[in-house]
Amino acid sequence: MNDAEQPNIPSRLEALWDEQRDGTLSAAEQQEFDALLAKNEDARALWQAESQWLNTLSASRSEIGAAALAESAFTSRVIEQWQTDHAGVSSTIEPTPESNSESVAVIGRIEPISPWRRVASIAAAIILVAGGVFLANQMNPSGTPGGTFVNKGDTGTVTPDAMPISPVSMLVANTNAAGLEEAHPTQIRRRLSEAVAILNPSNLVDLLEPSMPDPADFFEPLGRGNKS
Amino acid sequence: MDNERGPSRQKESAIVSDAQPAAPDDQDSPDPTLPLESWSDGDLAKRVASGDQDAASVLILRYERLIRSFLRKVTGRPELADDLAQDTFVRLLKHADRYDPKYPMRTWLMTIARRLSINFARRADQRVGSTEYEGRPSQDHGPSDQVEADDYRSSTRRLIDAALLTLSEAQRSVMVMFHQQELTIEEISAAMEMPVGTVKSHLHRARASMRKTLGSKIEMLNA
To answer: Do B60 and A75 count as a contact with CB atoms less than 8 A apart?
Structure first.
């Protein structure tokens, strides 16, 4: 009998055949199966051959001999690898195999972001410092707008033009005025343009350049003021 | 003579493979004076989770033959099978704290082993662009196989190995789990994460295919 000459097994016998192999045959079905098999010689031969190779397959479970199992190389290799991985976990936060791909993906996203975060932090710090310097200068009572210097000890009348002006003081002082533009239109425009200029990155660089003088020098003309 | 396991088969094959019979998990903690070999899988897993190497060795020895022989039949390559078995046990030890004693350890291990073998096969396919893993009869037999090359049993085994490798991965795994490892249909269903009906379908098709491949060849060997 070759592959092309498989015996024609009745469908009922075939169904019982699988049930028997699966171990789900009832006692009555077992009797029916035995009777059908007894009537069909080809099917019986095939059943016996199948039983033979299934027994061989079952016996192959122990093909790894006792000697091979007694040799503890396999166990020690597993333990060694486990310990190596365990040591890695205690020194680093190692993601589990299941979460490995996600963790790598997150790290992959963080890495490109980090340089930008650093640049943004530096820029924010520069803006804060520059803004602080600008406001400090505006609030400095020794400085005057428009390059008009006030002498030390000068008790003369202070004209509005000579008063130190800051955006905050203007806002507070002119709440009842016709409007900021009416009160100090020239100063407002100048202050705004100065603020914009200071926030310009190229000017920020100039401002913090070590070779540039301290901005306070422009407003604190020690020994160079208008002396009367 | 026959591999005829009657209706009682499923009852008798509880958690008994070649593994040492494990004590039931019906007590909170095991008696520390008892040898580790008599401890249940769940108790051993707890010890392993706390880094106990002795408990790890006992668990490995308990299931080593089961996993290695399963993977040898499924992959057809003993050395590869042993590497995959090693990975299987390393995963067991690393994640021992996740083991739920309500489920059989061998089912859990089978699931891990099968997933690893499938992953390997996929990677192999991607590397060579063809099935390096599936459908290739084993050429990698040990020294004892060489000595017994003409032995009837060895010849039959080789025919079976070759026939197994002609099956699909799912059919082969079901076939080996059921007829070699003697897992129940329900256990296979759990290990392969597929319905019982699908397991039966794979099993019936696998047997029919192997019957067709081996029928005449086994008769020739008998002649």
So the answer is: yes
User: What tens digit of pLDDT does each residue of A76-114 get?
Assistant: 889 999 888 766 554 444 444 444 444 444 444 444 455
Token match 């804060």: residue? A128
For B115-145, the pLDDT digits (tens) are 999 999 888 776 654 444 544 444 444 444 4
Using the beta-carbon criterion (under 8 Å), do A82 and B90 form an inter-chain contact? yes
CA-based nearest distance B46→chain A, Å: 16
Per-residue model confidence as pLDDT tens digits over B142-168: 444 444 444 667 788 888 989 999 999
CA B107-A82-B118 angle, to 5 degrees, is 45
| CA separation, residue A210 to residues A197, A205, A215, B159 (Å) | 19, 10, 11, 85
In terms of Cα–Cα distance, which of B220, B71, B209 is closest to B140?
B71
Handedness of CA B70, B76, B78, B83 (dihedral sign): negative
Q: Do A62 and B5 touch (CB under 8 A)?
A: no
**A28 to chain B: which residues are within 8 Å by CB?**
none
Question: Tokens 């392969």 label which residue?
Answer: B192
> Which amino acid is present at B30?
P
- pTM above threshold 0.90: no
C-alpha span between B59 and B54 (Å, rounded): 9
| In contact, A18 and B204? CB cutoff 8 Å | yes
